[in-house]
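User: These chains co-purify. Model them together.
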Amino acid sequence: MVVSPVHLIAAPLAAAFLIPLLNKLYRDAARVVPGVVFLYNLSVSWILVNRVFRSGPIVEVIAGWKPPFGINLVMTPFSAVLVMLVSFMAFVIWLYGFRFKRSLKGGVVMYYEILQMMMAAGSLGIILTGDLFNMFVFVEITGITAIALTAFYRDRDGAEAGFKYMLLGSMASVFLLLGILLIYTQTGSLNMAQIAERMPAVATGVKVTALIFLLISLGTEAEMFPLNGWAPDAYSQAPSPTSAAFAAVLGVAAIYALARVGFTLYDHGTVSGFLIAMGFLTMLFAEMAAITQTNLKRMLAYSSMGQMGLAMIAFGIGSEAALFGALFLIINHAIIKSLLFMTGSYFIYNLNDKRLRALNGIHKRLPYVSFLFALGALAIVGFPPFSGFWSKFYILTAAGAKQMMPLIIGILAVTVIEMTYYLRVIGRIYFAKEESEPASHKPSIQALVAMTSLAVLIIVLGLYPDLIAGFLHRASMFLLDKQTYIQTVLHLS
Amino acid sequence: MGIIYVLGILIIGALAAFFVDDLNRKWTGPVAMLAGFGAAAAFAFLPGGIVRWRILGFSMHWETDALAGFFAWIVLGLSALALMYSVKYMEGKARQGYFYASFLTSVAGMFGVAVSKDLLSFFIFWEIMTWTSFLLAIYNAYYGVETKGIKYIIFSAIGAYAMLTAIVLALGQYHSLEFSDLMAAGAFRFSSGNWYIPVLLLLGFAVKAAVLPLHVWAPAVYPKTPMSFTAVFSGAMSKMGILGMLLILTGIFRSATGWELTLVRWVLGWLGGLTAAWATLQAIRQNDAKDLLAWSSVAQLGYIVTAVSTGTRLGLMAALYLALLHAAFKGSLFMVAGAVEKQAGTTDFRRISGLIKRMPWTFLTALIAIISLAGIPPLGGFVGKWLLYESLISETHAYFLVILIFFASTSAFLYSYRFLFGLFLGQEEEEAKQITEVSWWMLIPMLALSAVSVVTGMYPGLIFRPAARALESIGLPAGQWDMSILSNVWGNQTDVFTVGSTVGILFVLWALFITFKGKKNTRWLTTKEISTSGEIPAPEDNCTFQRGFFQPFERAVGRLYRSSMDQLWEDIGAALEAFFGFIRKIYTGNAQTYAMYVIIFVVLLILFRNYIF
Amino acid sequence: MSETKDIRIITRPTKEQIRQAQIDFAPRCTAAGRVNDKETQKMVQYILNFARKHSLFLLAYGTGCGAIEIPATLTSRYDAERLGIRGAATPRQADVLMITGYLSTKTLKRVIRVYEQMQDPKYVVAFGSCTINGGMYFDSYNTIKALDRYIPVDVYIAGCMPRPEAVLKGFAKLQELIQNGNAGNGECYRKNLDWYRANQQKVIKNWDFPDEYNW
Amino acid sequence: MTGNWLIELTGIVLTALLAFTVGMFYGGLRRKVIARAQNRVGPPVYQNFLDLLKLQGKTTNVTHGLMTHLAPVWVLVAAITALLFIPVLHGGLWFPNFTFKGDLIFLLYLMVMGSLGMALGVGETGNPNGAIGVSRGLSLITGYEIPFVLSLVAIMIQFHTTSLTDLMHYQQATGHWIARENPFAFLAALFSVLGMFHYSPFDIIGAPAELASGPMSEFGGKYLGSLMTGGSIFAFVKLVLITDLFLGGAGHPDAYTGAAGVLLGLVELVIKTFLLYMIPVSIGIVMPRFRTEQAVRFFWRWPLLFGALGIIWAVFWK
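Assistant: Joint model of the four components:
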């Protein structure tokens, strides 16, 4: 056993601590090292994913303490898919941000890279851990790094956004801790498998209260309405690669945690209605807010919240098809929204103006970036033949199988809103008259490679979704199969 | 495997056009044209065959039966000609790669819709054709078309998502998306308990077919799209809605009796009739040829929808016949508008007139197409009208509906005349003197489409036979069709061949008479030398009557003109936006509020935990 | 009484003018509808002339006060329609151009235009003294005195103003001329266009006719 | 046209000649009637022939272009074609022409062909009066065509046929005129006949004093002559159509046989059509002129109501 899930977390964490030292030796170490680490992570996760899908879940025991006593990492097919996604996205985002703040030397960039890396590490930790308290730790790590990244620019808006994030984030932490506490008092365990095993015996009142605390806290991270007030500010004030990372790394981890709580700790039936309702409200309010935005990044942020809402709906429906759709949606969201943030930030970088109005006729200056943005916009709305269509279609199919007509109509009505504002932006980019003549910043090679690879993924997954369908089916089946999870973790041979 | 080749040629053509445009702009158009003709040729010469493949566990089924073939011919034939027309029409315009790539992808989408035999691939192709056409609709940015294009896409999305809802519900209910399976299971029947499935599907098709309350996008978008694509847009893409209606309603038609059929006939039939009448009234008061044609398209689609709704032998034949013929004559009319736009710079009736001497061939095309559109006997349009009326009178006994349709088609004379008069007749503008005829690259497609009207005027059987096969392929009675004799269920006949030859012979005789009688002493004057008032108009004066042309009619119609469906939708849109703006205020941007939300949320959840969980 | 009487001086035409008028006597030429030599043509022409004389579409150009007599002529009292005379609305349809009364130079331009737009065979009936010699406007600076210097005239109806009976008599004369083939001077006008144009251009100041004479 | 094409051709020519003669005489009669009503002598009855002869005898003609040149042709062709598809006499050898090869819907559309062809020619002249006239004329068509269609639909559904011959046959076999069987339809049709003839009060199209005869204003000589011919034939066509539809038509295959039968039939036809013709004429004598929108609205009011009643009558007649 050469590689193990521990490496995925340990490597970035270690690298994050080492970077200040390495930076002393080599000036650009802060830029290069994360890439190496992420590449390593990517290859490790590739190996692990293969192993998981070939021979079942991996349970990694830390320091020899077997579950339920020690801290352990569990890599089920479900988490394996997300690990793979997060590793890949973290790498792509690093690639995109390779020339980030090229003009600034030393410290600033270093902080940025360290924080990015720690956020990735924390997210991977959330996905991999099999221990509830450990999850809390990782949530804290990601949360604090995310807050730091939000306030990265140290200006007024950044500080305000960071403060909002910190306020809500710390409330979330408190509730998470409360929830864990309650569960620990009732079940006497922090190991998720053991909790799941013992949960049916717990008194309903306490169980539900704990669930509420967990949902509140994880919902805050997963941008659930009405707990998502931090998101628009954070997305729009954070550096662009970080915005992408919020969608592609942090969001993935948060929605994973939510799913883990809902499907493993508790019965799916308990949270089903709540998730559907809150998911739909999230989606509805987010899209309604998005259509009125005048700021590109805020618009994208609200759209992100909408996508998370859709994912919650899918987890709420909870059938195998729905989970498949949800997983596919998370993947799509990570890829497409990152692409949108990446391309969008190039617009902003060129225009020094975040307003949508400034985008008029930008395609003449940034033809390729505009093309990618348009592609992303069409894909995220769910036009075939792009990948966004399949996830949405699968979720709808799952709803259709349960004959939830109002829900379907609701989702699609909200999609109309979503489509309207995305296509408006496309119209602006391509067909409106240009207003100003900004200086031109061409995207760097690394960024181009990053964006192009995402775009290619969108098209490939759209035309040939069967490429990942097998993995996703296995993953979603495993998430539903609570007993196997408990068996695997608790009864290690 | 013909289907794969056709789609392949179109997609490769689209990519090729996109990239060729960067290399050499001159070759973009010809490459696209080659792709268009190549696709048509591939469809003609290769056996269509059946294509089945699975994607994400859904089976896709494409097949070229007679019905698919009929509509595929409308799409591919019209598109090939429109692409040929495009070569010169788009000359010198920007972003040709973008244009042709979208064009060809859109054609591929339409072709896919035509050959799809399951709802999922139908929907996927439908969406492809929709968003590519959106990209084309906003091509002419300088018109300030952004909002209009958005209107189109919103309506399309409403339609498409209605379809999608129906699709996922049908999938949940019947576990198959094959048309044949669903039909066999009775999924498209109102009586099946899932009445919403056919209703939602029909809603989706109604948007594309621009049926009354959902028609507003068409008049907004058709005029602003480049004319070479509008020809396809109006001629072929809207027919996909008709195709969908046919496919959905087949089951109901087959039953031939019952309240479902009555419902379809009443609701859909009247919606079609009202669309036709309303759009005709709107077309009459347009002052721009393109707007006029756009409204006229809506009106013609109204006839077709009504024809579909009858579900009878004559009615369905009328629908298919009109679908093809409308593609032909409206295609050529939009091309005429494009030709005028290219040569004269505008299609506003108030700014140009008297182009007949400058663009005689274009005028000839327009004349034939307009006669066909108006349904005047010797040309093909009459046959469609005849079938429609006879089916409504003798088969479905929709007596008042037929009056409405008749009102629409009589009023259609007004705008038909306005189109010809506004562009081609009247006095010449002084500055119009240097306008020349368009190139043959544009004329040949136009004339070819006009020829369809002429030929079918004498031999409508040329369309009847494939159309009858198409109807039989979906299990509807088509019966025997003669080459040129039309007959209704009461056995009354009209022999269009006799009509055509009589009119032709008499016309030639009298034309010869009037030409050769006193030929020496007949002078041909310019339009400036008119007899009124003995005044000599200055060369720069133009007496052509163009403003408020149908004012008496408008006054007669009166109040009806004051209401506008478009305004209604725009008001709804504005109200929604305002509402969204209000909702957005939930996100106040104030950290304390957000914190309060969290607390309230927690409290609520805990209070109501017994109900929620 | 020492006051001088206000005597209005009537200017008579100078000798020069009178001589000029004699020289510029309106041209006479064979009318278009004249009976041909050939026997066959004769019959056809006879019938055609018969039809022409009984079907006179009248374009009554109401230039002057005489226009008031035309309605009387056409309506119930005198009923010109029984002679086949009816009003025409445009010169394209008309056979007879009737100049009713004095003709100012400004109107002359329009009259010429209208005359030129009529189709052969076309007839001109000059109504009232004013068209013959200026009548009571003989000394006006802006009316023309003799119509046939500007367009050929077939029939004059004298009087100031002639009553409907006289008008009908004039039409009867015109019909007689038509039957004999002596009416209709369109060809004559075309042949002598230079002469007419010269006369017209003398009085019409803002000359903007097309160079070419189109009927 | 099968074996006896010569006879058929003769029939066609004779029908056209008959229509022409009768139509022209009716025109003359109208002028005479109007004159008598105004206490005048009026022109002779054959005045229209003289006018036509004169117009065709014009030695010069002007036209403004191909469409103007062909405008009278459209009118004539439409008139004669319509004539050929209408049974002038029921039975007999000469007059069926093509009546079995076209039905009422076809006739309806054929009847507007002439007006539209004419309108195109008028448009090309560039004369604004002409275009205004066309605008009014087309508006008026939408007025009177609707009640006409209503009445046609009413009798079509009442007798389950769209063929004129069948309708004539029914009337002669039963002896009941459709005017009696469906009076409302007849009334509606009569109103639309008023409009079709463009006589007062619906003569706004060519209002001579206002529009300089509107559409006709650029036509003279042979063109005007041809238009007149076409108009006369067309007037006869309309009269025969209404007679055939509502007044039992003329001729009787059983009662009238041989040459005498044809003559008798013609006499019957002339009487019926003349009486019918006198309706628009006599109304025209006493009525002033409607404005276009007034005329259109008039047709959309009472005649429309009668037409609708006709349809309801037809539905419940069975």
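The longest helix of chain D spans residues 5-37.
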